[in-house]
Amino acid sequence: MTTAIEGIGWAAALLILASYLLVSTGKLSGQSAAFQWMNLVGAAGFVLNSGWHGAWPSTTLNVAWAAIGIVTLLRLWRSARLGA
């Protein structure tokens, strides 16, 4: 189980790093669904990894990070649905 949790943590780190790189190089917009999904999935991976290790400040930060992603994705979905 520990190996799986570590793998999830490393995958989460790479996903969030890749999303930051793509936004920083102009390949993605910070308001794009792809960027938000990358951050949401990455944050969820960090929640699992940091929670497993008892790193509660990091767990809390990533719960908030994921919540921001969810809210932004909902807004994007509503906007697309309304045709705005």
Tell the overall outline. globular
Can you summarize the main beta sheet?
none
Low-confidence parts: none
Radius of gyration, whole Å:
14 Å
Number of discrete helical segments = 3
**Count of individual beta strands:** 0
User: How much strand?
Assistant: under 5%
Mean pLDDT: 96
What structural class results from the helix and strand content?
Answer: mainly alpha
Straight-line N-to-C gap: 45 Å
Name the helix and strand elements from N-terminus to C-terminus, one letter apiece.
HHH
Assembly type: single chain
Helix content: over 70%
- The number of distinct structural domains comes to 1
Organism: Sphingomonas echinoides
InterPro entries: CBU_0592-like
Pfam families: CBU_0592 (PF26604)
Transmembrane segments: 54-77
SSE arrangement:
Elements: H1 2-24, H2 33-52, H3 56-82
Helix pairs in contact: 1-2, 2-3
Describe the structure.
- The chain crosses the membrane at residues 54-77.
- It holds the Pfam family CBU_0592.
- This is CBU-0592-like domain-containing protein.
- The protein is an all-alpha fold.
- It has one domain.
- The protein is 83% helix and 0% strand.
- The chain is built from 3 helices and no strands.
- It has helices spanning 2-24, 33-52, 56-82.
- The longest helix has 27 residues, at 56-82.
- The mean pLDDT is 96.
